[in-house]
Design a protein that fits this description.
The protein is of the alpha/beta class and about 300 residues long. The protein folds into two domains: about 120 residues, 2,3-Dihydroxybiphenyl 1,2-Dioxygenase, domain 1; about 160 residues, Roll (2,3-Dihydroxybiphenyl 1,2-Dioxygenase, domain 1). It is about 20% helix and about 35% strand. It has a nine-stranded mixed sheet with strand order 14-15-16-13-9-12-11-10-17. Strands 2-3-4-1-5-8-7-6 form an eight-stranded mixed sheet, covered by helices on one side. The protein binds fe (ii) ion. The site of fe (ii) ion has 8 residues, from strand 5 and strand 8. Fe (ii) ion binds next to strand 5 and strand 8.
Length: about 300
């Protein structure tokens, strides 16, 4: 069994019409489908039915995020593995989520709502339809970053699923890790784990073409009257070597638009190690304005148990 990639995330939004105006009309996400309570969106280079679902909810929330597995039988193998570990699982029937085949939902060791699926309806990539691109031009879902009280356990959990550690930060008191970045693809990370007493979401991140496009995102939201949604950036993280800008959507979900993170040609390359002091001094922010306090507020994650 192997994971292929992190394929999509589902976020809760208070007002679906307002969310559509922000995500589609301003940011340029591509709409695949719309239901009474849900929008199915994708980036211009995505070939899956969706990489982002926006669902009517009480407020900002990570409802689930999904990993594609490499073959259909992997879902039953995962079910058996989790049941042996005494961990509750729930099956999601095919098409309960539009475009997706049957899927297995669990909570990871850190309490985040994780889904595994194999089948997802394919759609046309707009990668070579530049005349249709708009707004921020999100390319694809790059990664999800999570807050957890158990970074070390989370690393062990995802390593058992075939992910590799690319970077990590020592805990301030020297006991284990404060933060970790793990990858399954050749991206610097598909998932990031950062210490916080309670589980939560830090952000979902979409890849954009280059550093200038990261800056262009700021122009796009400002020209549309949404300058106040910029929370942090543009700037550069030294950890993962990425250009970034973070926005809060109208409901309060935190989105990152991101580029220039390095690629990892050797899956067995040793991870980059940060002391807590070095990470605080220059790892989080190589240059740019410092993060506001709001940047460290967790977005709630949904429990289905
Ligand atoms: Fe899903």
């Amino acid at each position: 069994m192997s994971l292929v990639k992190i394929g999509h995330a589902e976020l809760g939004v208070r007002d679906l019409d307002e969310a559509a105006a922000f995500y589609i009309d301003v940011l340029g996400f591509v709409e695949t489908a719309r239901e009474a309570d849900r929008l199915y969106l994708r980036g211009v280079s995505d070939t899956d039915h969706h990489s982002l679902i926006l669902t009517r909810a009480e407020g900002p929330e990570l409802i689930h995020f999904g990993w594609r597995v490499d073959r259909p039988e992997a879902l039953r193998e995962l079910e058996q593995r989790f049941r042996r570990q005494g961990r509750p699982v729930r099956w999601v029937s095919a098409s309960e989520e539009q475009g997706q085949g049957e899927a297995l939902r669990v909570h990871d060791l850190c309490g985040h709502p994780v889904e595994f699926y194999y089948s997802m309806e394919r759609v046309e990539s707009l990668a070579r339809k530049a005349h249709l691109w708009r707004g921020a031009v999100p390319q694809w879902l790059d990664h999800v970053a999570l807050f957890t009280p158990h970074v070390d356990a989370g690393v062990t959990y995802y390593q058992a699923l075939g992910l590799h550690l690319s970077e990590y930060v020592d805990a301030e008191d020297g006991s284990g890790m404060f933060a970790a970045w793990l990858h399954r693809t050749s991206s610097s990370h598909d998932i990031a784990l950062v210490h916080k007493p309670q589980p939560g979401m830090q952000h979902v991140s979409f890849w954009v073409a280059n550093a200038l496009q990261v800056v262009h995102v700021a122009d796009v939201v400002a020209d549309a009257g949404w300058a106040a949604c910029i929370e942090f950036g543009p700037g550069r993280h030294k950890a993962t070597n990425s250009m970034f800008i973070y926005l809060r959507d109208p409901s309060g979900n935190r989105l990152e638009f991101y580029s220039e993170g390095y690629w990892i040609p050797d899956m067995d390359a040793p991870p980059i190690h940060w002391t807590f002091e070095d990470y605080k001094r220059e790892g989080r922010l190589s240059w740019g304005e410092r993060a506001p306090a709001s940047f460290f507020e967790p977005i709630p994650v949904r429990s289905w148990t």
